[in-house]
Design brief:
By secondary structure, the chain is of the alpha/beta class. It is built from nine helices and 16 strands. The two termini are about 15 Å apart.
């Protein structure tokens, strides 16, 4: 077990920069666990990092990507007491280290928790980054409450399709936008109303307590016209003019808010997502499953956009 298969880059660049390699199996530090990886999913963070637009790497090249992970604990560091070999876990890897596109990876034990029993490893690997992004956007930043009217822009994508299910589980009234080909898919997730963005617009008279923009379809100025007086707009991408506008609004007594989400590892959030999955209230949709040596193609598909749900790389 001294050598493992991995897909990694030796230089930043296009999808062709991804290469299958034989790398040394890492050793866990005192606060870490060594995982035998079963699956990892593809997020925009993967191909942005591959192109050199992510956080600086810890350890340089070769750099193994993959920031979602589901697998089994192989070994534990001396300071880890809540996990043991054989435990099935899932979680978010350090964005400066990655490592999910390999047979083994070391991660801080605090970054993983017990895998949802209702999901396979392949399904569970699709949840952490996208699920936490949706959960933190809706609850931590938008402070969504039961009974509120929520609009989710880009509801068929990786983050969006999980956001619809999370909002419904909280008891919100959900309106969602997606391409016309995905209307029935999004309706099946539990959305109360679905608007195909390529043929229709969100009616101007509709007002929402929360607008969650997963694809930067709008800026805050556009969102304001459809927010209630105390409405909150949250985006997965920064809207600097929107943030400045909020500061200006406060001078005039307006209470609308503009936020953007910066994902943080959160074991409590992972536990809540696992509970939703085990209750049957959250299930990721997998558009395509790739073998480890298909990671480059998965990057190309993700980068081209229009993925319905998630793309997953099966490692073991």
């Amino acid at each position: 077990m001294s050598v493992m298969r991995a897909v990694a880059i030796n230089v930043y660049g296009p999808a062709e920069a991804l290469r299958e390699m034989s790398l040394t199996v890492p050793e866990p530090a005192d606060d870490e666990v060594l995982l035998r990886v079963h699956a990892s999913s593809i997020n925009p963070l993967d191909w942005k990092t591959r192109k050199g637009k992510g956080l600086p790497a810890k350890g340089g090249f070769p750099r193994v990507l993959g920031f979602d992970v589901s697998g089994v604990v192989e070994r534990v560091g001396r300071g880890v007491t809540h996990l043991q070999p054989g435990d099935a876990v899932y979680g978010v890897l350090d964005p400066r280290r990655g490592g999910g596109n390999a047979e083994y990876v070391c991660t801080r034990a605090a970054r993983v928790i017990a895998k949802p029993a209702a999901l396979s490893h392949t399904e569970a690997a699709a949840v952490p980054v996208a699920g936490l992004t949706a959960l933190q956007s809706l609850k931590l930043h938008a402070h969504m409450k039961a009974g509120e009217r929520v609009l989710i822009l880009g509801a068929s994508g990786g983050v969006g399709h999980l956001a619809v299910q999370i909002a419904r589980a909280y008891g919100a009234h959900v309106t969602a936008t997606c391409g016309a080909r995905n209307v029935e898919f999004v309706r099946g997730l539990g959305a109360d109303a679905v608007i195909p963005y390529d043929t229709d617009e969100v009616p101007s008279e509709h007002q929402f307590d929360v607008i969650f923009d997963t694809v930067k379809a709008w800026d805050f100025a556009a969102a304001c016209r459809r927010l209630t007086p105390t409405g909150r707009y949250v985006s997965t991408l920064p809207d600097v003019p929107g943030l400045l506008k909020v500061k200006l609004f406060k001078w005039f007594g307006f209470k609308q808010q503009c936020r953007f989400v910066m994902l943080r590892a959160d074991p409590h959030g992972l536990k809540y997502l696992a509970e939703l999955a085990d209750k049957g209230q959250l299930r990721p949709h997998l558009q395509q499953i790739y073998p480890l040596d298909g990671a480059a193609e998965a990057h190309r598909v993700s980068e081209d956009g229009h993925v319905t749900g998630k793309l997953v790389v099966e490692v073991g």
